[in-house]
Amino acid sequence: MRYELYYWPSIQGRGEFVRLLLEEAGADYVDVARLPEENGMGLAALLRLLGGESLEHVPFAPPFLKAGDLVIGQTANILLYLGPRLGLAPKTEAGRHWAHQLQLTIADLVGEIHDTHHPIASSLYYEDQKPEALRRAKDFTKNRLPKFLGYFEQVRAQNSFRSGYLVGDTLSYVDLSMFQVVAGLRYAFPRTMARLEPGCPGLVELHRRVARRPRLAAYLASDRRLPFSEEGIFRHYPELDR
Predict the structure, then answer these.
(1) What is the pLDDT of residues 115-149, one digit of tens each?
(2) Residue 143: Cβ within 10 Å count
(3) Where do the GST N-terminal domain residues begin and end (predicted)?
């Protein structure tokens, strides 16, 4: 099946978690909004589906995935669908639910990362809420981020398969998502991560293992991998990383 991924064309954002899975699996997919405005592709195609007049199951926001007649929204939901089909999810029902639970926890963390620079409203510029962002980021780097990283470090250590992965005995989409989180946090909060990484060596090693996988390494070195920037989820404002 050829999958169609719909996400904003100029940022990594939440769509990157889906891209990593598709790239690692070697799946046949198109990043619709990044294509020229022809043959039903491009940003206009994303906006047309987002308008939803032709759909019963209308997505609230990108990312969403078109797989045949299915249109699936929400990052964790997309990964729940793709993971088993592309060999990047546990084979047991219990394992799949555990992977999904971890992915939802990652979604919570991603939301808190976003709110460090937009704690009041996404519709406002960062400069319009800078005092609030400073307070939010201080609590995040001191309290919330250590708690999240400590939790995932514990999950990896207590995986009964002792595989070095978060779930089961082989790589899953949850490991790809944790790779993206670590990479993004290193960009957004380099000083904080330098302080915290000695306390989570398992996650550091997991990031290193994922980055070395041949398909992922090729993707990360290609122009398909958009750079981090101050327009996405992971933004580097030095004043927030004191």
Answers:
(1) 999 999 999 999 999 999 999 999 999 999 999 99
(2) 10
(3) 1-90
